[in-house]
Amino acid sequence: MYGYNYLVYIMPAILLTLFAQYKVKKAYSEYSKIDSGTGMTGAEVAKSILQSHGLYDVRINRVSGNLTDHYNPQTRELNLSDGVYSKKSIASLGIAAHEVGHAIQHQEGYSPLKLRSVLIPMANIGSNFGIYMVIMGMIFSRVLVNVGIVFFAASVAFTIITLPVEFDASRRAQIELENYMSQEALAGSRKVLSAAALTYVASTVMAVLQLLRLLSISRDR
């Protein structure tokens, strides 16, 4: 099931993933060392943008780790990593503004974000156990194979719907940052966010190829 042929099958996705990771690290490393020229930290810019949209109830937290930034719609919390929260670099402001973009999506009831939230429970099961269900089903029950594929398909759908959510958040970030950054700095933040977006594209390609592989295997059994 996961022998040489499988590796050949998903090799394009693996290469794209490695390339995306390289681009993110390169862009972040470069623009995390260049001052944004705003005199503001990532947290300060995030707060300023939030308040300009009337989002006074979104809490901004500092979290440990590198590039662990995310917005939690359930708790309405904006979590910024150490390197983003307190730094004044182009990368820091770009990432902070991107996460604020998700908060604005939440405020506006952005449909893809709402759909993604609905898919989370099934997607979590599918990404963690879907493939194992299929493997067990091949031994014990055809029904379990089908159930595993359904759950894994939900995780793939989640990955696909993440693309417009992330692209839109980056678009919103760039628009907001026009009020703070020079055009040169904006170009830098765009490179950081574009590199990050490529990782989501790579994840989607990998997930779709895995699903197609599972469907192919299930038909052959």
Automatic annotation (TrEMBL):
The protein's enzyme class: hydrolase
A GO term for molecular function: hydrolase activity
Superkingdom, taxonomy of origin: Bacteria
EC number per UniProt: 3.4.24.-
UniProt keyword Amino-acid biosynthesis, yes or no: no
Keyword Electron transport: no
Keywords from the named record: Hydrolase, Membrane, Transmembrane, Transmembrane helix
Matching InterPro entries: Zn_peptidase_2
TM segment ranges: 6-24, 143-163, 192-215
Protein name: Neutral zinc metallopeptidase
Taxonomic placement: Bacteria, Bacillati, Bacillota, Tissierellia, Tissierellales
